[in-house]
Design a protein that fits this description.
This protein has three helices and four strands; from the N terminus they run ββααββα. The chain is α+β, with helices and mostly antiparallel strands. It has a four-stranded antiparallel sheet. Strand 1 and strand 2 form a beta hairpin.
Amino acid sequence: MSRLWLKVMKNHRISEQLTSDCAWGEEKEILVEMCKQADLPCPIWLEKHEREYARFRRTSFTPEHFIEEIRFDKLDIEFLDDTDVKRKSKDPRNEF
């Protein structure tokens, strides 16, 4: 099962967090639903976020990515895939 983890950061601490079931490619729709559920403004999804999400499976939204004024410093989302935990690293430094 894969999940999307939303973290609301204020003063470098998690002030709110939510998780929701999510398949790869559904992150934008799930993000909108999660923002509505948490009564948060929806961020603007830019090409920068697309690249970060595709490469690192996470991205951050800062105040300039919102149209409305926000009450937090940053909104982070991260894709959590349970199959990644079971996948073994091929890096020889991790063998012990």
